[in-house]
Queue: 3 jobs
Job 1
Amino acid sequence: MITSVLPTYNRAPLSFVKGEGSWLIEADGRRFLDLAAGIAVNALGHAHPVLVAALTAQAGQLWHTSNLYQIPQQQELADRLVEATFADTVFFTNSGTEACELAVKMARRHFHDAGQPDRTEIIAFEGSFHGRSAAGIAAAGSEKMTKGFGPLLPGFTHLPWGDHDALTAAITDKTAAILIEPVQGEGGIRPLPDQCLKGLRDLCDEHGILLILDEVQCGMGRTGRLFAHEWAGVEPDIMMVAKGIGGGFPLGAVLAREDAASAMVAGTHGSTYGGNPLACAVGNAVMQIVAEPAFLEGVRARAGLFRQKLEGLVAAHPDVFEAVRGSGLMLGLKCKVPNMDVVNAAYTQLLCTVPAADNVVRLLPPLNITEEEIAEAFNRLNAAADTLASAG
Ligand SMILES: *Cc1c(COP(=O)(O)O)cnc(C)c1O
């Protein structure tokens, strides 16, 4: 008999009842160190006092009005994002998937209104993840996500990750945009080298194509810059954001340059909940903390420390781990044993991690994890690896 909750998830037999900073407390009282952070969502850990205050203050005032009316919290957050990034304009969604939908629509509408209606094709990459909607699965194109869900939304081409020649060959006069994650998350924590991102920007400029970056997972301070593309010194035309921006409250956004967005006039897109007062109150609080240069510098310092420890972990357990990869506090351990064995061994050490494709275990701690907690995470990973090495 089917379960009352549609059984689409492989859930761990854990049920958390409370969160405090980098810690999750299980119903039985055990304290887990949380390097999952709700899949890079709890950017400031659990129950951050500034976020709790922002949410509860707004909850006592006004929850929701829809976008029939002005929403000052939304205006404030849009201004903050425009001020801090390449973007001239922002649309708020509830999720990364919805950000993907709009990014695709915006790119197509841009060329439609520019008198190039045949430019509808979007080039995306193998191993990518852009959400679970019809556009999201068509964009990622992996059999795992698309099987049985056809006919798929047309207009997507998929290329191997990091193959510049294949990319150059794939561009036609029908190409509207290139869509890519600067650091692949679900695909196994694969950072795109800065040179490649620069090359993509050049190609887009040369052919008059839009560059869409999916920073749903790697954005909002995760790599030690507010957005990952800043490391390469290039700017997208359109960018998808979600996960960390709400710190645990459902919130996403599409950021865009004016030229890319100018066809999206009144009536072309909308959302009932998108950017509601509760979500934006929290988003503003998150932005206020994460966009501070000193905070981002701290992320880079903690990331350097964690990475160094993980290199030691890999060296000490060559039978279990192959390599560390990633950027900032978006880290991956490429495993030699099945990655789920590592995830499960970590659970027995009261440590939460996230599996990814390519046999990788993701480590996505809150961005404000302390040095002591990083040392503790290392100890627990080490103990987990010990159990696997002795078993194998
Ligand atoms: C999680 C994720 C999405 C989808 O976001 P949802 O909020 O789950 O809809 C899209 N792109 C990337 C890169 C992601 O990591």
Job 2
Amino acid sequence: MCHLLTVCVTRGRHHNAWFPHLEPMRHIQRLSALVLFVTLFLIFFYSTLHLETAYSLRTGPEDLLEVPSIQQVPILQEVPILQEVPILQVVQVYDRDRTAQSSKQERFPTPTPAVLNVSVSDGLRQAIPPNGAYWNRLLYSALKGLVKGENPIGRDSDWSLCRQMNQEHLQTNVHDFTTYPVLFQDFVQGMNCRSPPVLLNQPNKCMSGEEKDDNQTFLLFTIKSTPGNFEQRQAVRETWGREGVHQSGLRVHTVFLLGSSPPEDPDLNSLLSFEAGHFGDLLQWDFHESLLNLTLKMNMFLQWTVRYCPAASFVFSGDDDVFVNTPTLLSYLQSLELPKASELYAGQVISKASPLRDPKNKYYIPLSFYDGPYPAYAGGGGFIISGALLQRLYSASRVIPFFPIDDVYAGMCFKALGVSPEANEAFQTFDINEQDRENLCVNKKLILIHRRSARQMKKLWKGIHNPLLTC
Ligand SMILES: *[C@@H]1O[C@H](CO)[C@@H](O)[C@H](O)[C@H]1NC(C)=O
Ligand SMILES: *[C@@H]1O[C@H](CO)[C@@H](O)[C@H](O)[C@H]1NC(C)=O
Ligand SMILES: *[C@@H]1O[C@H](CO)[C@@H](O)[C@H](O)[C@H]1NC(C)=O
């Protein structure tokens, strides 16, 4: 109370000292002048701040060329705040790939040949019946186009225009389109949208150091995450997703795949920029995170890997809430012999599955959209692909229309390559018996378990690495 009073008195005194002789009217004029002056000052102050931000953006590209590692980058130094600008430049280089050659590009092999070399196996035609359902028709028309040597359906169409596919077209082609759930309608309208802007990139992720004899990437973990899952990502980094050289000199790299959060959600962009600068393992594209956008996410990861990590021997695709027993996984991969090692698509295989027709189910597929069984596929919680298959897989994905369920879609693309999923009992994407969950010996033998919280992940990792553990 006393303090408040002092402040008031002091303020009063100031007023008196500045304008002792003023009449009320002039007092107000002077006051406005003062306000104007302060405003101008503030505008000037903020514009210098803005200049600084703009300046740091321009210095961005150099920063981007260095892969920040935990040891090299002290936490408080150099937080690249807005990575958009340098990254967009990288993307432009990428887009120009097909026409121009720049000196930078020599370091990155071009991912997509000018003419797609896709040969779709008969297996796909046998697995998916040609009928009147919309997706089936799209597939067969794409396959027909392929035979004629046509470029795949307007796949490179501008991101800002691709959703303009007119409602009328869909309503004539899909008789009950308007009865589809809203999100499903949204998916169908965006099926040709395949080039979202890149927000965060890690172009140097898989480039080995200066020494030429540095081992190339043996395993690349690509982990589907969402912007807000900070804790889960950190647990993965501290446990199974640790980057570096593992047993027998095998090099492991990790990237997290992110979309963007809806504008209604808290803005996490500066936190993500910090995280990306600090750990160097975030990839982010500007499309909304949602179940039905996971196929787009998969397509983007394929595109990224083909471009920036083409020499990886194996690639893992999975969720950020699975537990992976990395040592066991590495031993398994190392034990594979050719040709298996170069044609691997392994995980928990779901065969003889069919679309769910209950509109309330999150995996609902309307009959007029897709009619037929699903080709066998590996559960999307986590599976392994040979790096040697990536380019062909990506090419196939450019011909096969997007399907709303990402792991089913992966199965379709592999089917097109004539590669069948290999069932591996050690991948448990639907979790294990409840009584075995705490059993470290059971866990130690497995490769993948879904799902585990950040805390469970750490506990399990510590447990299976305990030298006193005897099984
Ligand atoms: C196309 O791919 C097939 C198998 O993937 C390969 O044998 C063939 O040489 C490739 N053709 C061209 C022109 O690259
Ligand atoms: C590369 O791998 C070999 C064996 O696979 C290993 O002995 C060596 O230490 C590794 N080198 C580096 C730099 O990681
Ligand atoms: C997928 O992302 C796009 C771009 O952000 C968005 O417009 C669309 O609504 C999303 N689709 C679904 C099914 O959420």
Job 3
Amino acid sequence: MSRSAHPAGPRHADVLPDPPPAPPQADANALDPAIWPVTACRDGGVLHLGGAAVPDLVGRHGTPALFLDEADLRARARAFATAAAGVDVFYAGKAFLCTTVATWVAQEGLGLDVCTGGELAVARAAGFPPERIALHGNNKAVGELQHAVLAGVGRVVLDSFEEIRRAADVASAAGIRQPVLVRVTVGVEAHTHEFIATAHEDQKFGFSLRDGAAEEAVAAVLDSPALELAGLHSHIGSQIFDTAGFEVAAGRVVSLAARIRDLHGIEIPEIDLGGGFGIAYVAGDDPEPPRQTVERLVGIVAQECARAGLPVPRIAIEPGRAIVGPAMVTVYEVGTVKPVELDHGMVRTYVSVDGGMSDNIRTALYDAQYTCVLAGRESDAAAVLCRVVGKHCESGDIVVRDAWLPGDVRPGDLLAVAATGAYCRSMASNYNHVPRPPVVAVRDGADTVILRRETVEDLLRLDAGVDRG
Ligand SMILES: *Cc1c(COP(=O)(O)O)cnc(C)c1O
């Protein structure tokens, strides 16, 4: 007998909305340009992306599938890269990485952040210029450090004292002087609309400012002939709209740079403020354009340096989500539609699609919000409150928690979910042995598979017990 047993029902799947869902938008068919990729439009009622009709794309590639608007991604990458002189932009590959996207961001003038040997291998397979690659991570294996150092990566971001020793040993054995950044934990935790500034942070990354660890780490790097101190690094969070958190972080990093000058008589060449720039997922999300963000950060660092009497260093930033997030759309096929009566006579329509938490874990993991529309047709039917759910054996398998869809939504409809470029395919799993969806790039009416659909055969190939005759 379980003491936490309760009647099946609303509590079980946490279906009572809190806070209540936003009211339906005036037109359930509309495509908010703040949310959808730059080429998204309706033509004859049908959603088009990159000049191609989504039903045609689905005819060729099936569902679920992620469609990547190349023009959208390139425009965002370019906007960051050209926003201001003296700023190095590194695309955070963990948001989404494959060789094609690595090639595009290289062409647009960006560098690339990787944080594992696997991501580094993709960058290398793409022929990404190694001097523009940065290796991150709080627990890099010796093999990963060797791979990075021998490949000639431009910077390794150091995260612990063990790692400083390991990196020094690896570089020294290779006869290389490796440029490194010291990752500093500045005590700023930023979220969408607020940030928390503390003296201390209870998390695994970086060297703390408060207990002197950051200064010690800098001293240890300066003591290692095989390491070259290229700068200081800070990353304060993700999906941030408000730059006040960056202001506090930059102030603290610049103060550290001033102390380093006083202690060691050296100037810090670069300050990396990390990523985390927010995007619009739902109506009302209002991120500022890349150029404005970059100009603001440059202004903040310049002001803090002036206050500390330091020359302005190079500035680096690491946007991931803000480059790839809005560029992709996931298209599913609706399989079942089930109205469920809730308390107070309210009805919620459960719309089941042919993917779910295996291709988008963000709703389950972070309570993320998304926007979706019917992709194959328009409808005048009055909007009903829906919850878009997947096909997995979990009541938490939710793709869109609260969606207003036309009341005639039915099996066979195509459903497009916006802004799924970041942390969806890259965090995808094979839960329930559901193969991971493909990523198809679209541009000027032409579509190209850049990551093919996984098959059940792919999965069975890993099963050592399968008899292959
Ligand atoms: C995750 C991460 C980023 C990118 O974050 P976004 O929210 O995708 O911009 C950048 N830098 C570091 C160190 C990160 O861990």
